[in-house]
C-alpha cells in the first residue's frame, strides 16, 4: 500500500537558517504530492503541491520538487522565520484511492529568534 | 475559495452524552468529505470517508455505531460521537475534496477539540 515517510523531528533552527524536511513515499501509481502545515490548535493548511514528476511546488518561500526517480518530495526554505514554527505534514493522494490522503508522521519545526 | 468550516470549534461534555460536529464546505460543492482524528503530537488518523447521499466508509478499527456520519448534502457532513467517554477526547478534523478537481486536493476545516469529562 501507499506510505509516506518524513524525517524525524523535532527540528529547531535559528531565524534565517536554511530548512530541509525530507519526505519519501511509496505508491503503486502516480500520486499527487502535498505539503500541509498545521499551526498550534488549528486544522491543516495546504502549503504546496505537485501533481507530476519534476513539478516544483512553491509558496511563501517554501519549495518542493516531485522526484520520481528517488520517490521524494523534500521541503526546503532558504531563510526561515519565527512565524514558520508549526508542524509540517507530507502527504500523497492517488486517483485510484478516491482522493484519500496518506500522511507522513509530521515534523515539528521551531524557529528561534 | 475552497473554505471548510467546522462547528463547534471546541466542546466539553459529560461522559455518556452524544456530541455532534458539523463540517461545511462554504463556497464549493464537495464530492467527498473525510473525518480525521488527531492525538497530541501525532499525525492525522483517517476515520471515515463520506460521500453525499451514501453510507460512509469506515477505516478498520473505527466503530461505525460509535462514530455516526451523515452526509446529507454536497456541503454538509456531520460526525456524531455517541455515548462519549474520556478516551474519545481528541482533535477531530474534517476535510473536503472538490468536485472535478484533478489533483485530488483536500481542504481542511479548522478542527474541533472534544473533551469528555
Characterize the structure shown:
- The complex is a heterodimer of chains A (113) and B (117).
- Chain A is mostly beta strands and 113 residues long.
- Chain A has strands at 3-6, 11-14, 19-21, 23-26, 32-38, 44-50, 56-59, 62-65, 75-77, 86-93, 101-103, 107-112.
- In chain A, strands 2, 5, 6, 10, 11 and 12 form a 6-stranded mixed beta sheet that branches. A 4-stranded antiparallel beta sheet of chain A has the order 3-9-8-7, with no helix packed on it.
- Chain B is an all-beta fold and 117 residues long.
- Chain B contains no helices and 11 strands.
- In chain B, the strands form 2 sheets. In chain B, strands 2, 4, 5, 6, 9, 10 and 11 form a 7-stranded mixed beta sheet that branches. In chain B, strands 1-3-8-7 form a 4-stranded antiparallel beta sheet, with no helix packed on it.
- The N and C termini of chain B lie far apart (37 Å).
- The interface between A and B is medium-sized, with 24 and 25 residues.
**C-alpha termini separation of chain B:** 37 Å
Which chains make the largest contact?
Answer: A-B, 24 and 25 residues
| Overall pLDDT of chain A | 93
Q: Whole-number average pLDDT of chain B? A: 90
Q: Level of helix content of chain A?
A: under 10%
Q: Radius of gyration of chain A over alpha carbons?
A: 14 Å
Span between N and C termini of chain A? 41 Å
Q: What's the number of helices of chain A?
A: 0
Give the helix/strand class of chain A. Answer: mainly beta
Order of helices and strands of chain B: EEEEEEEEEEE
| Percent of residues in β-strands of chain A | over 45%
Strand segment tally of chain A? 12
Q: Assign an overall shape of chain A.
A: globular
Strand content of chain B: over 45%
* Class derived from helix and strand content of chain B: mainly beta
Query: What is the count of β-strands of chain B?
Result: 11
Shape of chain B: globular
What low-confidence regions of chain A span 5 or more consecutive residues with pLDDT below 50?
none
Summed up, the helix count of chain B is: 0
User: Which regions of chain B have little confidence, pLDDT < 50, spanning 5+ residues?
Assistant: none
